[in-house]
Specification:
By secondary structure, this protein is an alpha+beta fold. It has helices at 38-44, 114-126, 130-145, 184-192, 200-207, 237-275, 285-307, 316-327, 330-381, and strands at 19-31, 33-36, 63-64, 70-81, 84-94, 99-107, 112-113, 149-152, 158-170, 210-211, 218-221, 225-229, 310-311. It folds into 2 domains: 19-235, no CATH class; 246-379. Strands 1, 4, 5, 6, 7, 9, 10, 11 and 12 form a 9-stranded mixed sheet that branches. It starts with 18 loop residues before the first strand and ends with a helix.
């Protein structure tokens, strides 16, 4: 029998959403050349006060960066976000292995509810003006740093990433809240940018890469975005290692694309050389030299990328860095490059062996001709 209305259980009042003070940092990364000479770069950017910071936490001593990237401020650009023109502060971080990471920092309105902050994040991620703004900043920067770029070129691939940084969480009364006040569904709503409820499986997958070091910090990583809750304004170490991982990913993707384009060309050149009469002399020499150069360049590039940041202990930043590489499929890209390098090495070995056999055959023919010529001269002399 139904309970009287006065005795019906009351619905639980949903907890008020946390209030957020935060910002969004939009990244776009480009490969601009084979190498950037960072010492020369510092001189070229001297008027903009370039810096070469490293991670600052005590545990960051376990992260070794032989040649720290250069960071420089690049001024502001206007970007329309959610039908509203906003000023974004641009800066760049430049890596010695040829990658330029452009960053646009956009502060959210103060004291937003979490739902409003998630809507701000969705508007930032989908703003159509980023491509043009990044292109303008990139062209100005490249014009300044061109003398420091070795073998410059425009890569066919780029990387995009967004970090949502929360500098303070508060309740309705303004009291500070811990990072664990954020529910999984709240975080997922921000990182995925979906207004509809997500499935339990999606929640589990998104929250599988969730890290905390102190009680009041949090880092949640996904393929194209991350949430960083960090109350210390000057602590950007998590963003630093995420940016490094994205730069390494871009370079691996670029090298993989180069090899994809190179292998069919090599096969075509081998076929053309085999059809030519000049093969008996030096027909394969140029192909062999180009193969050797391509393998050496790709191998050196992968080694420079992998040696640009090394982790010697399993600490908080190291775990974030390793998780980012796993999410970005860094190992998969490296294995793909190794397979393609193996194809080039096998092609070099096969081609070199064939070239040696052709030379040996030619020498045998020359020897036979010389012997025949000598016999002919002997017979004519009689």
């Amino acid at each position: 029998m139904p309970l009287p209305t006065s005795e019906a259980p009351a619905r639980a009042t949903p907890a008020p959403e946390p209030r957020v003070h935060g910002e969004a940092i939009v990244y776009r990364l480009y490969d601009v050349g084979y190498e950037i000479r960072l010492d020369r770069l510092v001189d070229l950017l001297a008027s903009s006060a370039p810096e070469r910071p490293r991670p600052l936490r005590g545990e960051a001593q376990t992260i070794q960066i032989p040649n720290p990237p250069v960071t420089v401020s690049l001024g502001a650009e206007t970007v329309v976000v959610g039908d509203e023109p906003r000023e974004a502060e641009f800066s760049a971080r430049l890596f010695d292995f040829g990658v330029v990471s452009l960053r646009a920092r956009l502060a959210a309105r103060p004291d937003l509810s979490w739902g409003e902050f998630a809507a701000f994040g969705a508007a930032v991620s989908s703003a159509p003006g980023w491509a043009a703004a990044f292109a303008r900043v990139r062209e100005r920067l490249l014009a300044r740093i061109a003398p420091a770029i070795e073998r410059p070129g425009e890569a066919p691939v780029t990387e995009d990433y967004v970090v949502f940084r929360v500098n303070r969480l508060e309740d309705a009364a303004g009291a500070r809240l811990p990072a664990d006040a954020l529910r999984d569904e709240d975080i997922a709503r921000l990182l995925v940018g979906e207004s509809r409820p997500l499935s339990a499986a999606t929640h589990r997958e998104l929250m599988s890469q969730r890290f905390s070091y102190f009680e009041d910090d949090l880092a949640v990583l996904t393929w194209n975005a991350a949430l960083v809750v960090e109350l210390a304004a000057g602590d950007t170490d998590v963003q630093y290692v995420l940016e490094f991982a994205n730069a390494q990913l871009l370079e691996l993707r670029f090298d993989d694309a180069l090899l994809d384009a190179e292998i069919p060309k090599i096969y075509t050149r081998i076929a053309e050389a085999r059809r030519g009469i000049h093969l008996l002399a030096r027909g394969f020499s140029r192909v062999l030299a180009d193969l050797q150069t391509r393998v050496a360049d790709a191998t050196e590039l992968v080694e420079r990328v992998e040696n640009s940041l090394k982790v010697t202990d399993d600490v908080f930043l190291a775990r974030i860095y390793a998780a980012a590489l796993e999410i970005f499929r860094g190992g998969t890209w490296r294995r793909g490059i190794e397979r393609k390098l193996a194809i080039l090495r096998d092609s070099y070995g096969m081609l070199n062996a064939e070239s040696q056999a052709r030379r040996a055959e030619m020498l045998e023919i020359i020897i036979v001709l010389l012997i025949g010529f000598e016999i002919l001269l002997t017979l004519m002399g009689r």
